[in-house]
Design goal:
The structure holds 2 protein chains of 2 kinds. By secondary structure, chain A is mainly β. In chain A, 0% of the residues lie in helices and 55% in strands. Chain B is built from no helices and 11 strands. Chain B is mostly beta strands. The chains are: A mainly beta, B mainly beta.
C-alpha cells in the first residue's frame, strides 16, 4: 500500500518569494507521483507528474518538483510566488500507470502582497 | 478539450433522502473514480470502476454505492443520506495503461440537513 504526507497544512509566503511545498511518500514499488492544484470552487488540475526518467520535473505556471528516491520525497517549488498561486495543493502517489491515486492532506498556499 | 462533467455543483438534501450524483466523461476512459474531499483530510477514495458494470470499493465505501451502466457515466448513490456525508464529492477518470494522471470534474458540494 502507498501513502502520502504533506508537511504543513498552511504555507504563507510574500509575493516574489520562494514557494516550497513538502511531500513525502511511501511505496513498496517505484511510484508515479503527481502534484495537483485546486483553486476555490473548482476541481483539481494537474500541475506536474513524475513517471520515469528525469527526476526534476517541470510543470505549468513555473512550478517544478524533484523526485528524490533516497529521501522518498517529491517537494514542489517555484522560485517567485505570484498572487495567482494562492490555492490548495495536493501531492498524490500511484503504484500503477492507471488506476487509483492516493492523495495527501493538502497544503493551502497563501501569497501576501 | 477533455471534460469530466458533474451534473450538480451544489445540492441540499435532508437526512434519509436518496441522493444521486452523476458524472460523465467524454474522453473514452476506462477508469472512473469517486473521491470525497474534506478539510484537513485531503481526497479519500469511495469507489472506482475499471469497466462497465465493474466496481471496486475504495477506502471509505460505507454508506455509498455506485453504478456504471455505460462507459462514459459513473453514478454515486447515497441510499439514505446522513449529516456526516456533507462534503465535496469529486469525480475523476483516467485511461487504462496511460500515464496515470486523473482528470477531475468541478465537484459537487452536498449539504445534508
Amino acid at each position: 500500500a502507498q501513502s502520502v504526507t504533506q508537511l504543513g497544512s498552511h504555507v504563507s509566503v510574500s509575493e516574489g518569494a520562494l514557494v516550497l511545498l513538502r511531500c513525502n511518500y511511501s511505496s513498496s514499488v517505484p511510484p508515479y507521483l503527481f502534484w495537483y492544484v485546486q483553486y476555490p470552487n473548482q476541481g483539481l488540475q494537474l500541475l506536474l507528474k513524475y513517471t520515469t526518467g528525469a527526476t526534476l520535473v517541470k510543470g505549468i505556471n513555473g512550478f517544478e518538483a524533484e523526485f528524490k528516491k533516497s529521501e522518498t520525497s517529491f517537494h514542489l517549488t517555484k522560485p517567485s510566488a505570484h498572487m495567482s498561486d494562492a490555492a490548495e495543493y495536493f501531492c498524490a502517489v500511484s503504484i500503477t500507470s492507471y488506476g487509483k491515486l492516493t492523495f495527501g492532506q493538502g497544503t493551502i498556499l497563501t501569497v501576501h502582497p | 478539450d477533455v471534460k469530466v462533467t458533474q451534473s450538480s455543483r451544489y445540492l441540499v438534501k435532508r437526512t434519509g433522502e436518496k441522493v444521486f450524483l452523476e458524472c460523465v466523461q467524454d474522453m473514452d476512459h476506462e477508469n472512473m473514480f469517486w473521491y470525497r474531499q474534506d478539510p484537513g483530510l485531503g481526497l479519500r477514495l469511495i469507489y472506482f470502476s475499471y469497466d462497465v458494470k465493474m466496481k471496486e470499493k475504495g477506502d471509505i465505501p460505507e454508506g455509498y454505492s455506485v453504478s456504471r451502466e455505460k462507459k462514459e457515466r459513473f453514478s454515486l448513490i447515497l441510499e439514505s443520506a446522513s449529516t456526516n456525508q456533507t462534503s465535496m464529492y469529486l469525480c475523476a477518470s483516467n485511461q487504462g495503461a496511460g500515464t496515470g494522471e486523473l482528470f477531475f470534474g468541478e465537484g459537487s458540494r452536498l449539504t445534508v440537513l
